[in-house]
Amino acid sequence: MSPIVLDGHSNGHAHTDSFKKRREEDMDGFGTRAIHVGSEPDQQTGAVIPAISLSTTYKQEGVGIHKGFEYSRSGNPNRNAFERTLASLESGGAHALAFSSGSATTATVLSSIGPNAHIVSVNDVYGGTFRYMSRVAKENQGVDTTFIDLENADEEEIRQAIQPNTKLIWIESPTNPTLRLIDIPRIVSIAHSHPFKPLVLVDNTFLSPYYSSPLLQGADIVVHSLTKYVNGHSDVVMGAAILPAHHAALRERLAFLQNAIGAVDGEGCDGRVRGHAVGAVEEGAAAGDGLQVREVVEEGVADGGVDEHVRVAVEGELAQRGFAGFDEDGAQVLAVGHPREVAHIALESRLIPERISRLGRD
Ligand SMILES: Cc1ncc(COP(=O)(O)O)c(C=O)c1O
């Protein structure tokens, strides 16, 4: 897939149209890429399923002369293959790095910004990310984070929060758990036109590459907890960072840290991770489920004012904000119970078969 990155600025029609066109082109073949990229038939045997490489170390013909693999933490055929799959699925992506969890991805990316840096983060960021920023990066690296409501803050407020040492604007959209929707092109435009030029990172866990393509909207880094939609089976804990072609130097820095920190996955990159193909199908089904859950909650809430209790990401809103794949006239697709009563109704409905800690269909 050719890694084209569209201009991240403005919400103008030209941008939206080219973004949509590129998204549509990319979605054509998404399922095929999910199954085949990184899973090419073995050249020696013709096996269509890649062999699992259990070896931790690799024979060298001479000192430092090898076939591209030396030690499994630094590089492993299964991880390399899986990283190619991820780069092909995240539209606009050229480089992908797989980590042992979404949290290990966060830790590695935040290590890359060095000591005494500053981050601007959406205020409703995933709790573990908030904890890492405020307890680990802050205490161990002297990294300060300014948490802002990036959904509602005006441009001036965001611009003023950016300091000379601001290395990163951290977006999660929709946020976990209250589904705040962040206008990614707006934030990209503010960041990239600012004299201090912070990078824009989007945690795309919630929508997955199937529904959202932040790199096509100008984001510099996309991260995922693969533990959620992308794997789809609730049997793998992993994470990833994906970058566009023009961030080859940043890719090198993250790959260095991936190896230095050792936040790599021992086994998940093997056959089990082919769940990512299921993730794509699961997304489509989840859209229908969100609508059904909302109906149940609507019936169950005493005063009928479901909008006051449930934050629902409406398809049309997602479409307007540049989430391709959503229809302007479409239905509600994601619902989250807010107060306990609403959460209880949703969880007790038979639409949610398991009460577990996970984003996804369950
Ligand atoms: C949005 C988001 N990002 C990151 C993470 C962390 O991922 P992991 O649990 O794979 O470490 C989570 C986990 O729930 C999440 O919801």
TrEMBL record:
Residues 14-23 have a biased composition (Basic and acidic residues). It is an enzyme of class 4 (lyase). One of its GO terms (cellular component) is cytoplasm. Pathway: Amino-acid biosynthesis; L-cysteine biosynthesis; L-cysteine from L-homocysteine and L-serine: step 2/2. One of its GO terms (biological process) is cysteine biosynthetic process via cystathionine. Its cofactor is pyridoxal 5'-phosphate. It comes from the Eukaryota. Its EC number is 4.4.1.1. Residues 1-23 are annotated as: Disordered. It holds the Pfam family Cys_Met_Meta_PP. Keywords: Amino-acid biosynthesis, Cysteine biosynthesis, Pyridoxal phosphate. InterPro entries: Cys/Met-Metab_PyrdxlP-dep_enz, Cys_met_metab_PP, PyrdxlP-dep_Trfase, PyrdxlP-dep_Trfase_major. One of its GO terms (molecular function) is pyridoxal phosphate binding. Belongs to the trans-sulfuration enzymes family. This is cystathionine gamma-lyase. It comes from Hericium alpestre.
